[in-house]
Amino acid sequence: MKIPKAISSLIESFEKLPGIGPKSAQRLTYYLLHVPQRELDDFSLNLTNLKKNTLLCSTCKNVGETDPCNICSDAMRDKTTILVVEQPLDLIAFERSGKYRGLYHVLHGAINPLDNIGPDEIFIESLLSRITSHQSLITEVIIATNPTMEGEATAMYLNKKIKELALDSRLLTISRLGMGIPTGADLEYADDVTLTQALEGRREL
User: Fold this and answer.
1) One domain, residues 149 and 164
2) Does 158 share its domain with 90?
3) Parallel, antiparallel, or unpaired: how do β-strands 173-176 and 140-143 relate?
4) How many C-beta atoms surround the C-beta of residue 138 within 10 A?
5) Is the dihedral of CA 122, 125, 131, 133 positive or negative?
6) For the ranges 92-96, 109-113, 187-191, which has the lowest average pLDDT?
7) 99-119: per-residue pLDDT in tens?
């Protein structure tokens, strides 16, 4: 049986999304066939505007609508602390907890040699430059990469590179999230209590 081109093309598009296999892609596509055209048009418009109406903050690399983003431009945030996360979803998780009021830096990934992702493929250099240019203000860098092999490798690399900046170690603390985050877990799925425990139990590197 030959599947209509419009259907097969959309199935292929869904299959490219993370966590979507062939069967899920098929179910999503055939579900959308029963959705009113007006809702499909809205869905299509939202996809079109996704990248058109968003940008990366030049300071922290979070996704926002303005540059700098609303967190970096918030005068009420603690400017002395930077919490380093892998993805924007991790930042959202910490903001949801309401327990952290400092600044962020989003790497947009983790070091993973198996996938050919090295330090140059994520926003590590911009973090190092940021620390260097604000070394008189920043007193702590909290490394909040995921407790996975890739996250731990990224944390060790960051710790090494930050210490190589020859900053006054008496003024800058490098810490890692403490107990509360199970090994192998993703921060975006952690609940507010777990994230709070991880922040409060962070350890110096």
Assistant:
1) yes
2) yes
3) parallel
4) 21
5) negative
6) 187-191
7) 899 999 999 999 998 899 999
One domain for residues 80 and 177: yes
> 78 and 157 in one domain?
yes
Which residue do the tokens 């596509």 mark? 29
Q: Report the number of distinct structural domains present in the chain.
A: 2
Q: Which of 89, 55, 50 is nearest to 70 (CA)?
A: 55
Q: Are strands 203-204 and 140-143 parallel, antiparallel or unpaired?
A: unpaired
Number of H helices, E strands in the chain: 7, 7
Looking at the structure, tell me whether residues 105 and 194 fall in a common domain. Answer: yes
Q: Could you tell me if 200 and 147 lie in one domain? A: yes
| Beta-bridge partners for 175 | 142, 204
Q: Where are the beta strands (DSSP E) in the chain?
A: 55-56, 63-64, 78-85, 102-106, 140-143, 173-176, 203-204
Structure-derived torsion over alpha carbons of residues 109, 111, 117, 121, reported in degrees to the nearest 10:
60
Q: How far apart are CA 39 and CA 74, in angstroms?
A: 36
Domain range holding 147?
Answer: 56-204
**In a shared domain, residues 38 and 126:** no
Q: How confident is the model at residue 13 (pLDDT cuts 50, 70, 90)?
A: very high
Distance CA 88, CA 144 (A): 12
